[in-house]
Amino acid sequence: MRLARAILDEPFTVAVATAADLGAQLGVDPATVVRFSRALGYAGYSELKEAIRSDLPHMLTATEKLRRRLLEPGGDPRAGSVESTVSQDLRNIQAAAAMNGEDLVRRAARAIASSDRVVVLAAGMSAPVATVLAHLLELAGVPGRARSDPVLAAADVATLGPASSVVAIGFWRYVGSTVHLFRAATGRTRRSIAITDSHASPLARLARFTLLAPTDAATINNSLAAPITVVNALVTAVTGLTSRRAYALSQALDEVYEAGRVTIGDTARPGEAADRGGAVEDR
């Protein structure tokens, strides 16, 4: 009964856990997990997991999603429309808001705000989320770095200390280098945060704090709308704790932006307006 309930209530966990892990979570012998799978008509637990994965949209590869939409009869022609895509992103964001309580986000933010530096680990589709997080943390006054190359990221992990934080970002299908580097990092600091899609994720099992972000999408592999929203919420909480540092840095950045003409806006001096306007028109 416990195994049946797990399949119905926590299919993602069953789909990614080993028989030993699932048995330990539910208090049953791993052999019982295998026998139960066979009783359901599968050759074994691996075949049961594959069947569950095929029914979970967020666990399908982009290839499989496209095959179902384009090649199988009865596919939904609206699956790739702008309206359905935006609607799915909104559902992901709403789910992320429900999954991550205010207290959890604040505790993770306190760990980051009191750190001497933050290393953000991610690769593949998750790398842009890591880049945004590291940049926003810099603006909040907390030194942050994100490098998707595993060799360069390993050098960052090697310099972590107890006063540092590490954030790992990854979603199904998880990139091995991110998981392995995060495991090494958690041996150097307890200030570990995962941004992932399930508590059954290998990153969640290693982290002290886990923030969840659904990435369901109709045809592409992952949608990054909810992960970016979670990053914004986390950095907002961090900035509330580092407001003086953030404000001082913002003032300094404004001076550099103006002196270096980094940005083009409506603050140009009269003599420079024509030049800046021309640059915009040329682009």
Give the secondary structure arrangement, pairings included.
Blueprint: H1 2-9, H2 11-16, H3 19-26, H4 30-39, H5 45-55, H6 62-70, H7 82-99, H8 102-113, E1 118-121, H9 127-139, E2 144-146, H10 150-158, E3 165-169, H11 176-186, E4 192-196, E5 209-212, H12 225-241, H13 243-260, H14 270-282
Parallel strand pairs: 1-2, 1-3, 3-4, 4-5
Helix pairs in contact: 3-4, 7-12, 8-12, 9-12, 10-11
Describe the fold and architecture:
By secondary structure, the chain is α/β, with parallel strands linked by helices. The protein is 58% helix and 7% strand. A 5-stranded parallel β-sheet has the order 2-1-3-4-5, sandwiched between helices. β3 (165-169), α11 and β4 (192-196) form a beta-alpha-beta unit. The termini are far apart. 33% of the residues are buried.
The overall average pLDDT, rounded, is 86
List low-confidence stretches: 273-283
Helix coverage percent:
55-70%
Number of beta-strand segments:
5
What is the level-2 CATH architecture name of the largest domain?
Answer: 3-Layer(aba) Sandwich
The level 1 CATH classification of the largest domain is Alpha Beta
The order of strands across the largest sheet is: 2-1-3-4-5
Oligomer: single chain
Please name the fourth-level CATH homologous superfamily of the largest domain. Glucose-6-phosphate isomerase like protein, domain 1
Structural Rg: 23 Å
